[in-house]
Amino acid sequence: MSYLLLQDLDKRYGATPVFSQIECRIAQGEFITLLGPSGCGKSTLLRCIAGLAEVDRGRIMLDGENITHLPPQQRHIGMVFQHYALFPNMTVAQNVAFGLRMQQTPEHETTRRVGEMLELVELQSYADRYPRQLSGGQCQRVALARSLVTRPRLLLLDEPLSALDARIRRHLREQIRRIQHELQLTTIFVTHDQEEALALSDRILLMDKGSIVQNADAETLYTAP
Ligand code: ADP
Ligand code: ADP
């Protein structure tokens, strides 16, 4: 059972605190939205969980393992950013295969899993295209497939829809929710868009100025006075 525990996390840049005393437990298969205004520390918190930045204090436990100081590639965490950082000179299939190649996965296994992932994000017929030949929404689906192909224990989504127009955004968020449900993936979705948070998640962590100020199910938050 994969679950995430954040225990008393602090992070500063120089003398400036970014967040402090972050406490949270996320259960296997849960879809959590981290909602808060721009600059409140959401991205930095995700980056610390992924191992792209270091916390100054506290512990990050994943499946009972202390991952606080593990290098990113040993955490088995998938991440998608706002600006899909796809490799421009690799095809869609090569982009998706990248993580498996790094692990020296046998070729037949790679082909099978890349095929599975392309099917999951409904891009089977785009395997040989290059990112510049795709729309923004399609690029984000490739980024999602690329982050899932190595079967991460946890999926972190940092405003993955923010750069897209409204219609695509709605379609893609439904697709993300379907995939998350199908794979029973423990997921943290970061957004500053309240409507998106309410539409997507079972539970919302409300963050403000570096603290989690509310931890509630979507319905409670919505009906709160
Ligand atoms: P959010 O994702 O909620 O918009 P961020 O985590 O990006 O917030 O940023 C939180 C605060 O930390 C901001 O004030 C930002 O300027 C600051 N910050 C983020 N990254 C760095 C960094 N590498 N160096 C210094 N300050 C940073
Ligand atoms: P190479 O990088 O060796 O030239 P390709 O560009 O053909 O190989 O493909 C990159 C990776 O993606 C390979 O591991 C391949 O098995 C896989 N792949 C390519 N096309 C497809 C596809 N249509 N369905 C599934 N996997 C694919």
User: What is the residue-averaged pLDDT?
Assistant: 93
β-strand percent reads 25-35%
N to C succession of SSEs: EEEHEEEHHHEHEHEEH
Number of helical stretches of at least 4 residues: 7
- Which blocks of ≥5 consecutive residues have pLDDT under 50? none
Helix content: 25-40%
The main β sheet shows up as: 6 strands, mixed
Listed once per kind, the bound small molecules are: adenosine-5'-diphosphate
- What is the β-strand count? 10
Alpha carbon gap, first and last residue:
36 Å
Spatial strand order of the main sheet = 6-7-8-3-9-10
Shape: globular
Radius of gyration: 17 Å
Structural class: alpha/beta
Describe the structure.
- The model has no long low-confidence stretch (mean pLDDT 93).
- This protein has a 6-stranded mixed beta sheet, sandwiched between helices. Strands 2-1-4-5 form a 4-stranded antiparallel beta sheet, covered by helices on one side.
- The radius of gyration is 17 Å and the shape is globular.
- It has 225 residues and is α/β, with parallel strands linked by helices.
- It has helices at residues 42-50, 92-102, 107-120, 136-148, 166-183, 194-200, 218-223; strands at residues 4-13, 16-26, 31-35, 57-62, 65-66, 77-80, 154-158, 187-191, 203-208, 211-217.
- The protein binds adenosine-5'-diphosphate (2 copies).
